[in-house]
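Submission sheet (multi-component)
Chains listed below:
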Amino acid sequence: MLDLLGTLERTHTCGELRAADAGKEVVLLGWVNRRRDHGNLIFLDLRDRTGIAQVVLDKDLGAEAHLKAEQARPEYVIAAIGKVRLRGKDVINPKMPTGEVEIVASEIRLLNDSKVPPFSPAEDAIGNEEVRLKYRYLDLRRPEMQHNFAVRHKVALAVRQYLSSQGFYEIETPFMTRSTPEGARDYLVPSRVHAGEFYALPQSPQLFKQILMISGFDRYFQIARCFRDEDLRADRQPEFTQIDLEMTFPQQQTVFRVVEGFLAAAFAAVGIKLPTPFPQITYDEAMRQFGIDKPDLRLPGLTDVKFAFAANDLETLAISPGLPIVAVRIPKVGELSRKERDDNRPLFDSRKGAKLIDDLKRLEKSFPDAVNKIREVTGAQSDDLVVLVAGDATAQLRMSDTKSAGRLSEREIAVYSAAGNFRVELARKYAVRHGAFAVTEQVVGSPERDAGQVDGSAAFRPIWVTDFPMFELDEETGRWMPSHHPFTSPHEEDMDRLVSDPASVRARYYDLAMNGLELGSGSIRIHQKAVQQEIFRALGMSDEEAKSRFGFFLEALEYGTPPHGGIALGLDRLVMILAGASSLREVIAFPKTAKAIDLMVDAPTPVSDMQLRELHIRTALKS
RNA sequence: GGGGACGUAGCUCAGUUGGUUAGAGCGCUGCCCUGUCACGGCAGAGGUCGCGGGUUCGAGCCCCGUCGUCCCCGCCA
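Outcome: structure written.
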């Protein structure tokens, strides 16, 4: 028989009781985490969001309460009414925050029972994502998940407070909008009223926020849901949340200061000091130093070692003399065995003409001076792993090697990124040995975070990457594509090369990377209609096409559009970093599987013919 | 669209060269137990080996197909 709550009210949460509360009459409400039944003495661990408290039932002190406790099972919802008591010295549990006290219950009410759960929220070790996602409410009861969402809440709140203090208005934009067939695939919403027509869910509020600037709101932000119908990854969900902001009259640095401000506030909210300002690097420099546009600064970058070789060395080694030679150094990994090197070979991408030299010992036999210089210039300690990446002189490639004004050529980028990606792979594989990632885990898991400010300067390494190329060549179509989106402003002094040398045009586009993850990207936008039209043309879009897709926006640009710019940061990814999680699913309450299915509500589903008829839709499925 | 890993009790997993009645730990049920906190002790229940087909005297194990979960490539302006 279940009991009624009646007029009972909670006096304390389970996690808050301390020695100072001894003697208080309390009412605790929560879930039975565990029951330890000693016969005439029963211990119930009562759990709520705040923690766990031990409730004691002594048959001699109350047979009725004891009987209720005997009936209680894991995940029953109960009320424990009684008195807080200091535990005896020998039965204090130092592992629990509430371990110095216990509640001697005079009454237990069983408010609800529970089937035996498919897995226990009380257990630390949890597997099988399928079961976790199906019974998501049980999974979310686990303290770890509760913690992740506490972090998420605190971060979102800190961001709102900071941005509000800087004059930003939070303004919502529509979920049902128009499809703009660039970029990712849209999720579509059929219109009942307009047969055969569809709304699209926004991939981002991009054009709306620009129009809010045209509308004179000066500074806008939104914690905005975005939708992209593309295949999933551990760090990609079909719907995700961005901290989206836009402001009028910004310099790039203005945007940076705002973002640094709210990130520092967000980190502070979870007890971590994040130093500002963040370092900045241009895209070209990032490629040269890290071989990737989202550098992980927790490990050393690439080192240019071309100087160490003479021209005929390169010939002997079949290395392209015109391409860079860089060293990848991973500290403390030690010398690799033949087998380890063979195992690592598939992690190296040689498809675009990059060549890996991973046996420095062997190289040293023929080129002792070169290897010496390399060890010196990379600052390699004796237990550091060093490998070389260069251009393969024997590679047959149909890739343009034309350099445009001062920028990296495609083949140079190919060598750098082969090295950069290999660096990331090695870093991931040998994380235990180099220990650079453990620093982050330590800070994330540090219990001192609640008390005060933990130094995050070594654990979290943000960096701004600036001056991306305006366009990228689409290898399939041979068309120039915008690196970011077509509303990004080119550098004013590069404008005259839009047609003559598009590859050399730099965009006022910037990324924020942290620990090798892309956290966000933004740009200073185009605010003059003529420039916007020119960009559309450079992208191979006819004026008619531009008008039919973005006519409303081009028109808005005609009515006094102020210079403006902004950025969007992935809230889910940010929380993932701060929670020390390895998947977005750990920080999204109701995520979808890799096939974009919600296992709890079982979505998507077929709908009735009636519904389809109203929407003027017929499915093309073969039955 | 492609590649890889996994799928055996409610959960985590073992299962040898294809061979009799498929195991362990946790959980669950019952009984015992007054200081446990991953309580302990005794006894017990619990299996469509993801699903379908094939090979074989015989399949959890081999083959083909299929479904699901995860990771990656493509994709994600």
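Remark: The radius of gyration of chain A is 30 Å.
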